[in-house]
Write a structure and sequence with these properties.
By secondary structure, this protein is mainly beta. The chain is built from 1 helix and 12 strands, in the order ββββββββββββα.
């Protein structure tokens, strides 16, 4: 018989480090309904914050308004910058939504993504929401204001929504709009983004990832 006895770690040393469920949150971008512009689409970056103990978040829906029509949503790793100035740019993007929606100029219509977009803490990606409907009133967006809008104070502000470019062509990644140009820079997304969050669980090794008040409570 063997004298070997397997060592069993105490339960206190076997704490889970990541939650086994995803918490659904709602990020709402403050929009003053300036209605600066409507056209065919908006392309922009989003970034998962890294100031809270987030393992990852999943973007599950994007709500927009406008005349809508045949809608598609696309995503690309890291950023949209440098990925929209030619017809072949679509090769750097992955289409994650396609559906036709009725006119809704006032009410936000959620586009429930066919596959969520997952971002780790600090990670960013590009998003492109586009309508192929004929006309120039398909999607509402704003001019970039001097003072950047921030997520609604009632939200957890888990996702940073960055400025982008507006699409003027009814073809996704098309380069010709009503006035000969396909894009306009310094534009902002108008709408709402739904996310699910997987939190990291407290352990001594990641104590510094938690907010100061939480760390103070731990010391007590």
């Amino acid at each position: 018989e063997s004298d070997f006895e397997p060592q069993v770690l105490p339960a206190v040393l076997q704490r889970p480090v990541v939650a086994n469920h995803i918490v659904t949150e709602r990020i709402t971008l403050e929009t003053s309904d300036h209605e600066d512009h409507v056209f065919c689409g908006i392309m922009f970056d989003v970034r998962c914050i890294d100031s809270l103990p987030i393992e990852f978040l999943e973007i599950t829906s994007i709500a927009v308004r406008g005349a809508l029509g045949p809608m598609t949503v696309w995503t690309t790793p890291e950023t949209h910058e440098g990925k929209f100035r030619c017809h072949n740019s679509s090769k750097e993007w992955n289409q994650i939504y396609e559906q036709t929606h009725a006119y809704s100029m006032r009410r936000l219509v959620p586009l429930e993504l066919q596959e969520p977009v997952r971002l780790s803490a600090g990670q960013r990606c590009g998003l492109f929401v586009h309508s192929s409907r004929e006309g120039d009133d398909s999607l509402v967006y704003d001019n970039l204001k001097r003072q950047r809008r921030t997520p609604d104070s009632n939200s957890s502000a888990l996702l940073e929504i960055l400025p982008g470019v507006a699409a003027l062509d009814t073809r996704p990644f098309g380069q010709t709009g009503f006035w000969g140009e396909g894009w306009r820079t310094r534009r902002e997304f108008v709408g709402r983004i739904g996310v699910g969050v997987c939190w990291r669980l407290w352990n001594p090794e990641i104590n510094q990832c938690f907010p100061p008040r939480f760390r103070a409570a731990v010391r007590c």
